[in-house]
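So, is this right?
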Amino acid sequence: MTNTLSTKDKILDVAIDLFSQKGYSGVSIREITREVGIKESSLYNHFKNKDEIITTIFEYFQKEFSKTLPPVEMLDHILTNSTIEQFFDRGFELFKEHIDKPVNEKLWRILYIEHYRNELAREIFLNDIFKKTLDFLEIVFEKLIAQGKIKPLHPSLLAAEYQYPIFSMLAEYNMLRFDNKDTTTIENRMKDHLTFFLTTVKA
């Protein structure tokens, strides 16, 4: 997760790798410590139990995911100084860069595996990934409507119409990457969706 070599970071790195392959329930403390190269008792100097490890991992994901959206207070400046296409192209690229980082790719796999079993994983999907993204986009569309750049449609509807297809396509993208399959087609579909959507809603 970081460039440091602390034991705690090694534990998290190994846990992320193992959880992403086998799921939380399929990995034991003994397996984690064996991969790290420490005694089981040493792990408890850093984490109370396995639950605390996965909670720390999910909190790290939340911080990483939050970086995919610019601060709301910067939106007026950003939207004024870029075209609609530039804004959404950059947003798409930032999100793709986030997902393509090896550690983040593993974190997404863990979320997919655990979200029906872990309340925090479920909360991250519902709040951080879905709600916060849609709320952010609703603000974006409100501002773009006020600037006269897109049609005066309902901002929350625009946010949903734009983002829900992206959510679905990103899930497919992640699955293809997991199996080391070609992602060209789904990447092109995401770009085509962006182009089609903006062409449809521009004033």
In short: The radius of gyration is 20 Å.
